[in-house]
Every structure is written in structure tokens, then in C-alpha cells.
Amino acid sequence: MAPSLEGYDNFKHFLISSPTEYVAHVETNRPEKLNAFIEDMWLELGQIFRKLSHDPSVRAVIFSAVGERAFTAGLDVQAAQQSGMLIPDGKSDGARAATRLRRHIREFQDSVSAIENCEKRMFNISNV
């Protein structure tokens, strides 16, 4: 395994290492669920790529996933339903519930956009 990159060892769902100087390797690490994303993962993903974007010790990023079956299955729909975020809370009127949902979706989208906005050269390696 490549050495870890300093300051990136506190993420629960991602492994971040440095296979060679100036290169960060970010691996999604939830293979038992085909690397399907849950809420914490979306937020970590954004934090990681925003941090990498500003890290002077990184010039390129490899993004891949642990496991042999899938890079990612996308959203873990079962977990999303269980979190209750997709279900109206019954306490808010329709407009407030829609605003709450929109803000939540926007937070997820900002995390995904952090990959696109990362100022480093990106590579995606899949096992396909």
C-alpha cells in the first residue's frame, strides 16, 4: 500500500495515499455496498477534494474505488430512505419542506462539484 498523505487520515469512507511524489490517490472504501454513497460519504468527498485543491504537495489526483465489482453504485437509496431526508417531516408546510430538501440536495451537489472544481489534474481508474 502507498504511504498515506499527511493530514488525510481522518476520513471514514475514503483511503487517501500518495503512490508517488505530488500524486494523491483517493479511493472510495465501501466495497461491501458496491461503494454506494451515503450522506457522510458525500460530505467527506467534498471535504477531501476541496482540501486537495489547495494542497501544494499535490499536483495530480487519482480517483478510484476499493473492490472488484463496482467503482460506485451511486446513491445508496435504501440508506437515503431510512435517513428520512426524502420523506416530508409532516411538521413543515410544502414550501418549507421543499426548501429544506433543496438545501440538502445542494449540499450534496456542492460535494460532487468539488471534484470538478479541484485545481489539480484528475485521473479516474476503474477496474472495468
TrEMBL record:
Gene3D superfamilies registered for this protein in UniProt: 2-enoyl-CoA Hydratase, Chain A, domain 1
Bilayer-spanning residue ranges: none
InterPro entries assigned to the protein according to its UniProt record, in alphabetical order: ClpP/crotonase-like_dom_sf (IPR029045), Ech1-like (IPR045002), Enoyl-CoA_hydra/iso (IPR001753)
GO molecular function: delta(3,5)-delta(2,4)-dienoyl-CoA isomerase activity
Cellular component, GO annotation: mitochondrion
Entry similarity comment: Belongs to the enoyl-CoA hydratase/isomerase family.
Name of this protein: Enoyl-CoA hydratase/isomerase family protein
Species of the source: Xylaria bambusicola
